[in-house]
Description:
The protein is α/β, with parallel strands linked by helices.
Amino acid sequence: xxxxxTEQSIAAAPLLAMRGIDKRFAGIAALAGAxxxxxxxxxxxxxxxxxxxxxxxxxxxxGYYKRDSGETLFEGAPVEFASPQAAQAAGISTIYQEIxxxxxxxxxxxxxxxxxxxxxxxxxxxxxxxxxxxxLARFKVDVDVRRPLMSCNTATQQMVAIARAIGFDARLVxxxxxxxxxxxxxxxxLFEVIRQLKxxxxxxxxxxxxxxxxxxxxxxxxxxxxxxTVRTGPLGEMSRLALVTTMLGREMxxxxxxxxxxxxxxxxxxxxxxxxLTVEHLAVGRRVRDVSIDVRAGExxxxxxxxxxxxxxxxxxxxxxxxxxxxxxxxxxxAGPIAxxxxxxxxxxxxxxxxxxLDGIVPAMSVRENLTLALMPHLSKGGVLDExxxxxxxxRFIRRLGIKCASPEQPIRELSGGNxxxxxLARWLCMNPKLLILDEPTRGIDVGAKAEIxxxxxxxxxEGLGVLMISSELEEVIEGADRAFVLREGRTVAxxxxxxxxxxxxxxxxxxxxxxxxxx
Length: 520
């Protein structure tokens, strides 16, 4: 078979060629003969389940890890970068899923960090401000570039990270889940910038678990599984079914059965018990103006709304991480008002936050230490840790949740995003909570791990746990929740029973608010 001319050029002279890459941690193979080739001016999808080796391969490419064996060619020459900074200087910029910037510095400083402009030996602030504004304008972001990055919302921070990477005049831009914090309009803008980069002969490695995104912008795809490259080819020649089957390494019928029992509408227990949480007329700053929700034992309550609707802010106040300005919060089992997370934990609550890297895991600590972090006071007596009991608990939850790690002593930062999320879930499950608050529990997680986590959430609800689940994915709320509340501009605008939960109903509430408001 004769390849098209574009395929011939990609095969003949790729911009990037990684071949036979091996990488082991504590004797466990994270990569085993992995390969990746990216053509010039090509948008290349890199996909696979969490733990498949995608992030490890990228870190080997950018010098974060040193490969054990194999070779990397960039622009036709052998390379082995000593650090991400060296890779960046050579023309490879990386945008990580977890925003990796300096929050206390200004937007301009973050965009120009490492390549500051100078005039007469001094920083040329006007020139750098203009450059930052011009780069952000490509993304249709209008923000005061002099303000601290931490004062911007997550979506804007993500755009700043992308603008910073593009500002280095890279030949290859690696985007690791770049859309996880963006709304639909921002995603569309990002895709236009990717197409613009392609026209400028800049290559892009695009890592995403959202198949719609892959087919929208990518030319070819590499599929990884268990540290190996298992399939590469033009994306247009592969069906979605083929991609998912290849990623999972099993028949699609099995996946469909798991999905049906994991988070299907027919799996609700219908045994909602006592009211565990009642929130009435909650107000917090400018983001939350009038939120009222409730959760009962044995049910999953979805919390839906557009970016900035106040979902995460509501969850943080319920758990005591932030203080309410007005309203009441009643928690079954609480001896008094929830003044802080310690009170929430004593009342039987657990909380997996939206940003697992910033607010969830402790990167330098091991899986064992992260998993039992909340349980430590109960594992210690007279200041002495009961290590035998701790190991028993850790081993039990690693098995129950299927956490993939070399050992309980492996640093959690080395785990995939999906496995980190499982550790956070285990942290609270070992406390035997009554109410679990999950903020974006499956964000950035692959199809297989998502089905496992969704199945676990349903299993926990069937056992009597109350779950408040925040998700930006309407499908996840519609298929998984027994009831759902919709927030709009910091207000509860709809409560939908399971029989009324549908995409049109939720979207109408997001757009127009209550029915009477929409009709006016």
